[in-house]
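Aim 2 progress update. The chain analyzed this quarter is reproduced below.
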Amino acid sequence: MGPIIIVLVVLVVLVVIALVQTIQVIQQASAAIVERFGRYTRTLNAGLNIVVPFIDRIRNRIDLREQVVPFPPQQVITQDSLVVNIDTVIYYQVTDARAATYEVSNYIQAIEQLTVTTLRNIIGGMDLERTLTSREEINAALRGVLDEATGKWGIRVNRVELKAIEPPTSIQDSMEKQMRADRDKRAAILQAEGVRQSEILQAEGAKASEILRAEGDARAAALRAEGEAQAIRTVFEAIHAGDPDQKLLSYQYVQMLPKIAEGDSNKLWIVPSELGEALKGLGGNIGRFTNPGGPDAGSGGGAGPVFDKPTREQPRIE
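Predicted structure tokens:
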């Protein structure tokens, strides 16, 4: 009884093991390589798969999703003999699980070494300045070489990125000083342009102000001249409209004499020649003004105007 139970237990265990080996579940975006007696048989895709137990063997399970692999910094010499450290990142995807298993022993290491050698070849043909400013060109050239070389390995390189390009410390200091000098130069140029523009605007403003002031003065002078001309025309028209006679004009001449004689320093003054003719007309009227009772006095009989004798010395008439 005991040996039979032991045999049954062994048989059950063997059956369970056989079932486990027979039914293979492959996850989504994965593949498995099946070998029979050490020889490739087929590739298992995602889902439930049946294999022959104890004969077929799962050698390798491969992830078919896109992988990201960062590589450590590599020292690369540029065309102008400067050493730079470059960090790279590779985005790849396995497209053929069989080729990735049998065509190369370790495709990650193979991609890394191929990346280093290709990067040194590309950077070796560029100087430092071009290396720092041509990342897209370097990425495209590196991706083309890697994609061509890894195609037979069943791997597709989707992208290659340069994370960092670090030149030597002395070169970094020189570049920083150069950039600082360029910034200072641009700042000085902008400041000079601002001062120049400000002076131009101030000069234009002063010019416009002077022009407006001159135009205002000219307009004011024209208006004053026009006003004086209008006043003269009004007086002239009033005189002609009043039609003054010789007596009135003579009287006006006499009224102006005290104004001409104003001031202690007026000892000599020039009398216009027309004044003599005007005084002739006044000769007959002076007696009438000073002698109101005379024969030429008016019929009113009233007292005429009396002129006070001036107390100060009268100027001489020459």
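The helical segments are 2-22, 97-102, 107-123, 128-133, 135-150, 169-242, 246-260, 274-290. The beta strands are 23-26, 30-36, 39-44, 47-50, 56-63, 67-77, 83-94, 155-166, 268-269, 316-317. These observations will guide the mutagenesis experiments scheduled for the next reporting period.
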